[in-house]
Design goal:
This protein has 337 residues and is an alpha/beta fold. The protein folds into two domains: 18-61 and 88-138 and 237-332, D-Maltodextrin-Binding Protein, domain 2 (3-Layer(aba) Sandwich); 142-227, 3-Layer(aba) Sandwich (D-Maltodextrin-Binding Protein, domain 2). It is 28% helix and 26% strand. The protein has nine helices and 16 strands. It has helices spanning 27-43, 57-60, 100-107, 162-171, 184-192, 203-208, 251-258, 263-279, 321-334; strands at 18-23, 48-53, 73-77, 83-87, 113-117, 129-134, 142-146, 156-158, 176-178, 198-202, 215-218, 221-227, 242-247, 287-294, 297-304, 312-318. It has a six-stranded mixed β-sheet with strand order 9-8-10-7-12-11. Strands 2-1-5-13-6 form a five-stranded mixed β-sheet, sandwiched between helices. Helix 1 links the parallel strand 1 (18-23) and strand 2. The termini are far apart.
Length: 337
């Protein structure tokens, strides 16, 4: 999608001002970008907004999960008490495959704001870029989707998330977990054409596409959704959060998008991302981390899978996001198998 040329320096909030939002081209990404556009229209009614679709590596290629085949990933506690992430192969692969091209477009000033699903962002980003704002968080839970409302035994479950695979095997060791890739409509289509008993998808993505639990219809097939409990299925860091990334030096654009920043969501995202940074982790690892505010205090829960079927779990409460993340990380470091 092409956009008109406009100045990329000295942006001021004036009538006729235009900013360019960059996004992936999937249905979900476009739905989330429209949410950003609508939020900006409410706070900056004179602002002209253009949308630029950026094709990412993740959209062009399906990169297998490191959980496929015989390769293993797990955290271990070393002799010094620190947590190490053990891989049989290098850490390249999926990290940043849905964000790198958007970040490149930002640095090249082809767009002013990159709209991301926060869980897709690597836990560390370049200093030249910053997460300037986030929208209010959507639902954080995962959903178990079935083709029948009857309480039948679930023996085959499909999911592409390493975290969800480990969670399923922990809660239901008898279940067979199969790989599932693609965007949300593709995954739903694969499900209705398969003999699988269930699949697991993020609630927020489904709801943003208009598929609301406890039941909805897709291509003539009724699907029934069960909300999975967060105490067992801790969500991925950043799940349900739409993040707006800008150039750090572009103060004018940062000021504009800050008008739609949700402070509590932003603080929670900072805690989750700091925890992942300490683990050198991202959404492709068997880690769940979720922050929320309860009675004005932030609570952070982390779930880390290692070699054992059961995860290590730690939690904490506090006011400073980064310090809380460090506290929970230290608790996991001190926990011995």
């Amino acid at each position: 999608m092409s956009v008109e040329k406009s100045s990329r320096s000295g942006l001021q909030e004036t009538p006729g001002q235009e900013i360019v939002l960059g996004t992936r081209g999937s249905e979900l990404a476009l739905a989330q970008t429209r949410m950003v556009e609508e939020a900006l229209a409410r706070t900056r009614p004179s602002l002209k907004i253009a949308i630029e679709i950026i094709r990412t590596t993740g959209d062009q290629h399906v990169i297998p999960s490191k959980a496929e085949g015989s390769r293993r990933e797990s955290f271990k506690v070393t002799s010094t008490g620190s947590l190490d992430f053990a891989r049989d192969e290098p850490t390249a692969g999926r990290k940043g495959i849905f964000t790198a091209e958007l970040e490149r477009a930002l640095k090249e000033k082809r767009i002013d704001v990159a709209v991301h699903s926060a869980k897709d962002l690597p836990s560390e980003i370049e200093e030249a870029l910053t997460i300037a704002a986030v929208l209010p968080r959507g639902a954080v839970e995962d959903l178990l989707l079935r083709k029948s409302a009857a309480p039948t035994l679930v023996t085959i479950i499909a999911t592409g998330s390493v975290r969800r695979q480990r969670q399923v095997r922990w809660i239901n060791p008898a279940a067979r977990v199969v790989e599932l890739r693609g965007n949300v409509p593709t995954r739903l289509r694969k499900f209705i054409e398969s003999d699988w008993d269930a699949i697991i998808l993020a609630r927020a993505g489904l709801e943003r596409l208009g598929f609301m639990p406890p039941k909805f219809e897709f291509q003539g097939q009724k699907l029934f959704a069960e909300i999975l409990p967060l105490e067992n299925f801790v969500s991925a860091g950043g799940q349900g959060v739409i993040a707006l990334q800008t150039r750090a030096a572009d103060l004018a654009v940062r000021e504009i998008v800050s008008s739609i920043d949700d402070n509590e969501t932003h603080l929670c995202l900072r805690a989750e991302r700091e925890f992942l940074r300490l683990l050198q982790g991202d959404c492709d690892l068997p880690v769940g981390v979720h922050a929320r505010f309860m009675s004005g205090i932030m609570e952070l829960q982390a779930q880390v899978f290692g070699d054992a079927p059961a995860p290590k779990i730690a939690s904490g409460r506090g006011h400073d996001p980064e310090e809380l993340a460090r506290e929970v990380f230290r608790k996991l470091e001190h926990e011995r198998e």
